[in-house]
Write a structure and sequence with these properties.
It contains eleven helices and eleven strands. The protein is α/β, with parallel strands linked by helices and 322 residues long. Helix 2 packs across helix 9 and helix 4 runs parallel beside helix 11.
Length: 322
């Protein structure tokens, strides 16, 4: 997604939102499929969304964690669900940005098989280095990497993830040689990063903020048009000298294809009302998400741009998963 498009969405997210108190048409519980494991940022944010929708729609919303296949397992459940408004997906940059190009065999069409509802949050990527690395800025990191080709490694949650592709983008943009080290989970990656066994990572803020505060990791830049509220001292990538380095993830609410437009609009209004609440905004930021809240049409355009933009990155990286 181009930086100006993201900036426009961020600006719109700061406007007050009001929701008409329409009576929900459904009384059965809504199932919100979170295609990742419990406990991570996606799960925490998904539960906040479920709570806010319940309060504003008067309908129970139950979170169903269905992890697997880089989010495709849970997304496929929603793609094949009845479009009655009772099954929703908390989609991500993996399911509806990277995977359509990365995966050789997708079980669904990320554009055709879903009804966009609302972009809930951006999940900013932050570049951090282990505290023992003698660099304090992106420029110093690039200079160090050029002086030590092949000696710096970076961790990720696996091939084709935003962390992996962010490293490839830095390598290509800066002309540096970095070694990729994939991990199976944050519980393995973060300890090895803090102890210096790996040197740097592109990660979501919630996963590394406590280590930053403890002085174990040094933040260099955040991938957003503006600085992150809880880390105001950390520059954006643009401020650090890398323009249009937008590698952040995101979470959006989608339904199955064919879901009535009035249902999508009503759910989007509930999301916008939730993220406009100062207390809810604070909780989402604490969880690592920058609140957005968009209309269905805006969400559709955003996802279309993400599939196109990440597709260029994946093809340039030459990454393909069977």
């Amino acid at each position: 997604m181009r930086r100006r498009d993201l900036a426009a969405l961020l600006g719109a997210a700061m406007l007050p939102a009001a929701m008409a108190q329409a009576q929900p048409q459904a009384t059965s519980p809504i199932r919100l499929v979170v295609p990742f494991a419990p406990g991570g940022a996606s799960d925490v944010i998904g539960r906040i969304v479920a709570e806010q929708m319940r309060d504003r729609l008067g309908i129970p919303v139950v979170v169903d964690n269905r992890a697997g296949a880089s989010g495709n397992l849970g997304a496929d459940i929603v793609a094949k669900a009845r479009p009655d408004g009772l099954t929703l997906l908390l989609a991500s940059a993996s399911t509806h940005g990277i995977n359509p190009t990365l995966m050789a065999h997708m079980p669904f069409d990320s554009r055709r098989d879903f009804t966009p509802v609302s972009l809930v949050v951006m999940v900013p990527t932050i570049l951090v280095v282990t505290s023992g690395l003698p660099v304090r800025s992106v420029a110093e990191l690039i200079a160090y990497a050029r002086a030590n080709p092949g000696k710096l490694n970076y961790g990720s949650m696996g091939n084709g993830t935003t962390q992996h592709l962010s490293g490839i983008m830095l390598r290509e943009r800066a002309g540096v040689d970095l070694v990729h080290v994939p991990y199976r989970g944050q519980n393995l990656l973060i300890p090895e990063l803090t102890t210096g066994q790996i040197h740097l990572v592109f990660n979501n803020i919630a996963a590394v903020q406590s280590a930053i505060e403890a002085g174990q990791l040094r933040p260099l830049a955040v991938a957003l048009p503006e600085r992150w509220p809880t880390l105001p001292q950390v520059p954006t990538f643009a401020e650090a000298g890398l323009q249009d380095f937008q590698v952040s993830s995101w979470l959006a609410l989608l339904g199955p294809a064919g879901m009535p437009s009035e249902t999508a609009e009503r759910y989007a209004a509930a999301v916008r009302a939730g993220v406009a609440d100062p207390a809810v905004r604070a909780r989402l930021i604490q969880a690592g998400g920058l609140p957005i809240g968009s209309a269905p049409a805006e969400t559709a355009r955003f996802i279309d741009n993400e599939i196109t933009s990440w597709g260029h990155v994946v093809r340039a990286a030459g990454v393909r998963m069977e």
